[in-house]
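Lab notebook, page 48
Experiment: co-folding of the full assembly
Goal: obtain a model of how the components sit together before planning crosslinking
Operator: M.T.
Materials (sequences as entered):
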Amino acid sequence: MLVANSVQWEKSIQVKHSPGGPPAMEALMTLRRCRRSEAIYSREDPVDYWYRVAWGMARKSTLLSDGHRRLVDFLLPGNYFGISAAGRRRNFDVEAVIEGTTVACFPRRRLEALADSDPEVGRFIRQVTFEALQRLQARILILGRTTAPEKVRAFLVEMGQRSREGGRGAVVLPMSRYDIADYLALSVETVSRALTRLKVRSAIVVADKHHLTIAGDALEEAADPGME
Amino acid sequence: MLVANSVQWEKSIQVKHSPGGPPAMEALMTLRRCRRSEAIYSREDPVDYWYRVAWGMARKSTLLSDGHRRLVDFLLPGNYFGISAAGRRRNFDVEAVIEGTTVACFPRRRLEALADSDPEVGRFIRQVTFEALQRLQARILILGRTTAPEKVRAFLVEMGQRSREGGRGAVVLPMSRYDIADYLALSVETVSRALTRLKVRSAIVVADKHHLTIAGDALEEAADPGME
DNA sequence: CGAAATATTGAGCCTTATCAATTTAAGTGG
DNA sequence: CCACTTAAATTGATAAGGCTCAATATTTCG
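Observation: model returned without errors.
Model output:
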């Protein structure tokens, strides 16, 4: 069952950018395979490692004071995360979204030392952090959308762009509707309704719950920035 | 008049973090003074400089495809911005919010070269980028709030924390209500109403349009994370 | 001093959150 | 492998909250 579950996503979740860093950096890496919903790091943990998603998908979240969960980011293969300074502790939780999600772990102290001595590594870390910044800025624009269907459509376009494979407009959504709702700051019901509305309007074609295609014109509309 | 205008803010906008980088880096810096609403950089500009606010306040924004302006960030003294890789072009506009806003400009190529040769500079740049990441993540949590008064309150707390001076709970808002609205993805009217509601409930004390104080208990409530 | 922003307040409509019920899918243990 | 239990997804009805349009202060700036 678990195997079949993994197979379901095998070809769906692909690397887009930064498949790996400089060799000297990759030498520090260890791989870790995670169960579904397993924590990769938790709030209050010390910052001992920096990470990169090798396969699968992860979600960065936090529990707000009002009890609501808020998803800050979805992490796809090639995305680095948890890259922050020492001394402090984590303020977010990161969990695997799908069974078998694998992360590359880099010991922070050693990697920082390496960045000091090897300019190529230093440059690479900066580059990776810039990419994270872009992701978050793009995300803010999505959250800034006013109507729910707009938010959902922008979200689908974002996910399509971030894991571009399977051709134009194809989108894979391994996460639950609850995850999407917490990501877009909407209720699950509204997300569900927005999806059916988009389907009815033929803005999307739904293969199954986790696979859909965005129609060409709906795809064009949301071409908004993501960089500094 | 312009002078008087500057004086109005003189003691209000203070540095909190990272007053300056390593000396070798500061040697590259040139200062630039801006008029109110003057562009610091614009969309499509090449990435030739990295910046730090020295005095005043700036706003990073973009025009969405639907014609709405979206503010991605407010930039306070000590905040670095525009730090992204070469090759591409800017996707956002950055403008001075108040008359006399002064920015420190660092030529990107020379600074990157310096980061390669001087580990201290490299480390500093990483640190600064981490701070920008934290800011954006905190911002996402604010945007994720559901009700308008909650968003506004969280915004006030954020601004208070970011330019902590003038004592506990004091907040200075040099920007217009329109800026706040575009920052929180609300309409101006809703922002205005939310503020009056907070005032009526005694959650805030309004000195004048640009100066207010957050009541102690309202301040406690919103202690949500901001870091990786 | 006059013109143009900027702020605030009101009324009505529209959208979304909430509560509730049903259907579908997924995970568990025999 | 199937029945069972639990989680996930969808759909409906209702009420609250925010956006829009509109009017009126209040400031700011030329």
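Interpretation: Helices of chain B lie at 2-9, 23-26, 108-117, 119-144, 148-162, 177-184, 188-200, 216-221.
Next step: discuss with group before ordering constructs.
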